[in-house]
Amino acid sequence: MRRRIALPWLVLAAVSALLLAACGGDDEANGGGNGGGGGEALPQQASDPSWSARDIAASQEGMALTPINVNSNLGVGQTRFALGLLNDAQVPIGGATVQARFYRLAEKPEEQPDVAELVAEMPLQARSLVPSSDHVHGDGTVHKHDGDEATMYVADVTFDTEGWWGLSADVETAEGDEHKGVQVTFYVQDDTSEPSIGDPVPPSEQMTSGDVDDLTLIDSSVEPNADMHQMTVAEALANGQPFLVAFVTPAFCQSRFCGPVMEQVVTPVWEEFGDRLPVLHIEPFDLEQARQGQMQPVPATQEWGLLSEPFVFVVDAEGKVAAKFEGIIEAEEVRTAVEQVLQATPASGDTQAEPGY
Q1: Which residues contact 149 (CB under 8 A, 6 or more apart)?
Q2: Are strands 279-282 and 178-188 parallel, antiparallel or unpaired?
Q3: 197 is a domain residue
Q4: What pLDDT, on the 0 to 100 scale, is given for residue 346?
Q5: CA distance 259 to 255
Q6: Reported pTM
Q7: Total domain count, the chain
Q8: What's the whole-number mean pLDDT along residues 82-99?
Q9: In the chain, which end has fewer C-beta atoms inside a 10 angstrom radius, N or C?
Q10: Quick one: pLDDT at residue 96?
Q11: Residues 214 and 336 in one domain
């Protein structure tokens, strides 16, 4: 069984967001946006929800699930917004369909709950991973045990202003239960702590295979991949070609929304594209300390401003973030982003060496 330590950055951030919503917002400014439009929020239509703490609580009353925003933090600009649905045991549920409406709220929603502007409506797509582990029998035979599926629901959203935002969702569970107008509020900052789309990435000089005698000192995978530890971020930037950076810890996942990203996402992407762009794996925690129960972020984690894990960044030839993914990720999402950045890079396929770089 994979070890879990119950002090996740991600969960703390999500709980903080829920507490803020329950308080109806304090003195912070409120706004935020998806997909366009600036200026003052417009009065809502009669069919649109109100956004006081009482209204939000009423929208969730009697439900056997709890909606939470899973992003560790949100900023103005293009965002992969993620919603989690937790059952009574606080376990993420899958198999649901979610139709979402994003609202720009008033500066102080508790004081002006009826002031809101609908700025986008879209379905949220389920992203799921199923953890598995090897079970060895006494006779030496091995078979895999699948764990509980971890799912969150995502959409690419563009928030255009800092402040409070609201999500109103129609949810239908796999069992056919319908919940209309489920409300969640969240705060969008001017910028995220980690690099945003279009931002240059930090030239980190993380430890590589050349710094250690044993790869398990820098890779908690059951079978560490030496090809993902051949170069630093700084060296990849100096090459002037696209690359991928995965802040993933197979053994010390800290949240309910991490899953086997290394095995089911990063490794398959490396197998397909590793001869055309470097794939760098960075453990977000110091493994020597993690194995003693102390979750200390490595310098690169701090340099990149990460508040949670896993995070996967696709970096373009100019050293800027082309795409980023947090939490539950499916390989196809990353595969698409990698293909796009390679297509945008002239002759990138002719300038990159075999894995091992």
Answers
A1: 92, 94, 128, 129, 130
A2: unpaired
A3: no
A4: 82
A5: 9
A6: 0.81
A7: 2
A8: 93
A9: N
A10: 96
A11: yes
